[in-house]
Please model this.
Amino acid sequence: MTPGPRELLKDAGLRITAPRLAVLGWLADHPHATADQVADGVRARLGTVSTQAVYDVLNACARTGLLRRIEPAGHPARYETRIGDNHHHLVCRSCGRTEDVDCVHGAAPCLEPSHASGFAVDEAEVLFWGLCPDCRPAT
Amino acid sequence: MTPGPRELLKDAGLRITAPRLAVLGWLADHPHATADQVADGVRARLGTVSTQAVYDVLNACARTGLLRRIEPAGHPARYETRIGDNHHHLVCRSCGRTEDVDCVHGAAPCLEPSHASGFAVDEAEVLFWGLCPDCRPAT
DNA sequence: TCGTTTTCTTGACTGATTCCAGAAAGCATG
DNA sequence: CATGCTTTCTGGAATCAGTCAAGAAAACGA
Model:
């Protein structure tokens, strides 16, 4: 079954602290949130939490693979707890709203550039850009 | 044949100015340059050019499709004159060096998310992340 | 319980980019 | 080749997301 935030942190070698549990917990219910939104959500649960702590938690978790960071050009970064399944994203150019999109081509082909110019490639990122239903009317 | 910067600007409905000609000209010889690098290159040709003018030119050209902007997460934006052929990019995580990669799947498949959640999708962006030959030794 | 190490707080700071107001071109027209 | 409207350029201040730094506080292995 799905391990809780506690186990995830422990397995990643990170200490279990209130801000971390709150960030992971809140983010599980609110995927694709920005650091700002996470800070608000966490403060609603814990009271005062410094902005820096939120960034530290997000960075630590992203670094250890507990969280995935999505950084759409021109919008603040967003975070999600759905990891390890190589899915992609759909981003609204106008409001930055982000949705999941399952991999277009099954598994492998997404990760194979035709020639890598000597680069050691470790990730292929696919982003679909468009306008979400709410932002579309303003045609 | 390939139209020169002059014709490109005119066709895009933009006025022909020294900064614009210099930016397009310089960028044609130096693809994947940052705004900073463009500013340096343009100043070497023209003397004094304000940073703002460079950003204005880059934005105007990107908006009208004369230039493509690539914004790799965590690195300043880069610009290129190669447009309209749906190619992708390879970015070095460490130094930001960017190279072209031809489309992995010919033409069409790159543009089809499996389901778009009501979004009007207009672009699929593919970015390959890795380490360039110069940054790799530091293993 | 202690001591080390990690994490959190506060506050200053950075880098890339944009906003603003006014001055200086560009260019369609007469 | 003058005129006047519009776009673009200049210089400087400002924004925004995120990072750096120093010390206080909390976690956890012994």
Observations:
- Chain B touches chain A through 37 residues (CB under 8 Å).
